[in-house]
Model the fold of this input.
Amino acid sequence: MSQIENNWKYAEDLPLESPVIEKARKLSIELGVSPVSPAVGSALSSVVAMTRASTIAEIGTGLGVSGLWLLSRLDDVSLTTIDSESEYHRHARSLFTQAGIAPSRLRFINGKAEDILPRMNENSYDLVVIDANPDLLLEYVEHGLRLVRPGGTVLVPRILHGGRVADPAIRDSVSVDYRALLHELEATDEVVSALLPVGDGLLQITRL
Done:
């Protein structure tokens, strides 16, 4: 194992997850839902703490692993979370309750994000997390940057797409779109972006 791989594994093994997050992770895997890795979850929590984000929108609830991390540190944070699978929301609600998170801090929206996002108010959130259909990522990022206030941040887990984005020989449409997005963000002066090598990659985009 290379030094880089050792570093990555160490970073992944280091975060301590709460019993409820561990339960949500196990249930996610049982139901075939891929949760964010512990290191990515820890990074999400850290961004919330650093930015003092109080309003968060999440595209892709899953069973609540990322949402539990987002709400794990600060008590004044509210989360609006979108997913097309009502069963996922049912499990996530139960897990949030088990974690002691007040229902008043949560808003669940059941439906397709591509139908819901255009109806959401711009400049309404401090943080937007996008962990949903990779085929629609470019559209979701555009909406995310519209939804966050100036100074707000959009976070995109899995941006390295299973290692395919880093290999220029791989030319599937998703990998090509992801590369184009990363290069476009580097070239614009409207945002500050950073690609963090945790999990399967975490893209951080801050609107100026």
Summary: The two ends are 40 Å apart (CA to CA). Strands lie at 55-59, 78-83, 106-110, 125-130, 148-157, 191-196, 202-207. The chain has a mean pLDDT of 97.
